[in-house]
Specification:
- This protein has 8 helices and no strands.
- With 195 residues, the chain is mainly α.
- It has 2 domains: 138 residues; 55 residues.
- The protein starts with a helix and ends with a helix.
């Protein structure tokens, strides 16, 4: 039962991560040539009509960071917490621009995020009641400095891939894949340094 629950939570994290990481990358990649199923790829251009291109670019980079945190599952808790204001921001944009149907998609994604946050409810107990002792928080596998640095290198490659996509799309995709591999290797770095 526990393995099924872990698989379910990991699946939600990966799905939300892929959704938002892809949505951010497609907005910034040259000619929007990237995979993604939500969010208009032309958001930056659309928001530029209202002098909000910088804000749309900020949303795209935030989607990349939050999505990458969830997709690689290293920072599920951080990513799922940051997902709440991200979804609310996107919701405000879609309501302001009177886009139909998007609020329903966002409601579904928010529900998935709340399920993910519920799996970390032990972390929120001290926030709601400061008298709760720390031992009530479930132990998780330790993360090391080297693991964090390997993951950050993977994230850095995602950001580097954006300008490279304007020069060579294949090189940019190679950099993206290398960054994903590095991020997943961060768990191995943890095991090597913890053991």
């Amino acid at each position: 039962m526990k393995n099924w629950k872990t698989f379910f939570i990991q699946g939600i994290a990966v799905f939300l991560g892929f959704t938002f990481w892809g949505a951010g990358m497609v907005k910034l990649f040259s000619e929007h040539q990237f995979i993604g199923w939500i969010g208009p790829p032309w958001l930056v251009e659309e928001m530029a009509k209202y002098n909000l291109a910088f804000y749309a670019t900020f949303i795209a980079y935030s989607q990349i960071f939050i999505g990458f945190s969830l997709l690689t599952t290293r920072y599920k808790l951080l990513g799922s917490i940051m997902m709440i204001p991200m979804i609310v921001n996107i919701l405000m944009v879609t309501i302001s621009l009177e886009w139909q149907g998007t609020p329903f998609v966002l409601a579904f994604l928010l529900l998935l995020d709340l399920i993910l946050l519920w799996s970390y409810r032990d972390f929120f107990r001290p926030l709601l009641n400061e008298e709760i002792k720390v031992p009530s928080i479930k132990t998780r596998k330790p993360k090391t400095l080297n693991g964090h640095l390997v993951w950050l290198a993977g994230l850095g490659l995602q950001i580097l891939a954006v300008p490279v996509s304007f020069w060579n799309w294949y090189a940019a995709c190679t950099i993206v894949v290398a960054g994903l591999i590095l991020a997943f290797l961060s768990f191995k770095a943890d095991r090597i340094n913890a053991g």
